[in-house]
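Lecture notes, unit on binding sites. The following record was shown on slide 14. It pairs a sequence with magnesium ion.
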Amino acid sequence: MIGAKLKIALLYDVWNEDPVAAAAREDAPSAPKARKKNKKTKKVEKTDREEIFEALQRLGHEPSYFELDGRPTSLHSLSRCDADLIFNLTESFDGDDTKEMNVVAYVDLLGLRYTGAGPHSILLAQDKAIAKKIFAFHGIKTPFFATAYRGRIEHAHDISFPLIVKPAWEDGSIGIDAGSVVKNIKEMMERVQYIQDEFDSPALIEEYIEGREIYAGILGSYETAQVLPLVELDLSRLPEGTPKIASYDVKFEKNTEVYKLTKSQVAEDLNEETVKQLSDTALAAYRALKLRDYGRIDMRLAPNGDVYVIEANPNPWLASRQEFAMAGRASGRSYTELIGEIVELAMSRYPSAGLANAAATH
Ligand SMILES: Nc1ncnc2c1ncn2[C@@H]1O[C@H](COP(=O)(O)OP(=O)(O)O)[C@@H](O)[C@H]1O
Ligand SMILES: [Mg+2]
């Protein structure tokens, strides 16, 4: 496979944020899309696909873009896609990110080769309550929690304040802001209500873990998976009174003070034992959810040395400035090499016969 020139389609999702225009589409599905709200500015500045496109060109492949615009017609054209490999950058369908797994399942059903996690892993990781239950089975520490939806408690540990309340099904820090960390029943109930009203999602109520925020990028699948150098999001400079969390503004809103005060960098001051504990925990979480090719495990390192998994991210953001690529560089891989390795990891899953478009370049 190595050295073969591949036709690689970069699959990504866009959606129309204007409800009037969306309603005017002749073939807009009529079912309500409760979870679509509040996606407004999510990652609009995404440049990852251009960067990956260029990296694939440098590797000698033949990249192209394939846009899923949320309409059935884009699914129909995908069924006729003749690429050797889909580089999967989708995060939602028509703005509904609970449909990410459906897109992957569809690509899978079409028999197309694709990078990253399969539909089952996306489901397991996206439903944070399920992921936490699986972590517990494997003895991986994760904050105690409860879930509440429309007045029903689905599960409840004996938890104590402070707590963090977040949507059970979102990512990209959607619904996470300074009000997420709650100190009493009143604040908690208001926040649960907010999550329900804004996202029509169960609320995940977790014990708030004070500590350092550490990300482990992982490359590989199953037994070959390896942890890249750990990256820390330094939240220590956030103003007094602002909870030290990676809120939506911290992650994406470049013009906010909290964005400017926080910074990710390779964590170089951790001792060997702590690095091992963080890396082993991340690897166990990655394997427990059957992630593959590449992923990122978000953790908290408590002052007493305990390591908690906050969440697992299949197909994490690959922009060159983001934590995963940063970890790749720290491991000695250039951005291009990192992208090339993801392609090779994905391709190694499939028999090479039937590679209609691949021609040896040497
Ligand atoms: N239990 C927790 N304790 C402390 N901080 C948390 C906890 N859960 C989430 N956070 C903070 O909120 C951020 C976003 O939460 P996360 O579950 O990773 O959501 P997302 O999927 O949107 O990234 C985390 O990166 C962390 O800073
Ligand atoms: Mg996260």
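Take-home: Confidence is low (pLDDT under 50) at residues 24-46.
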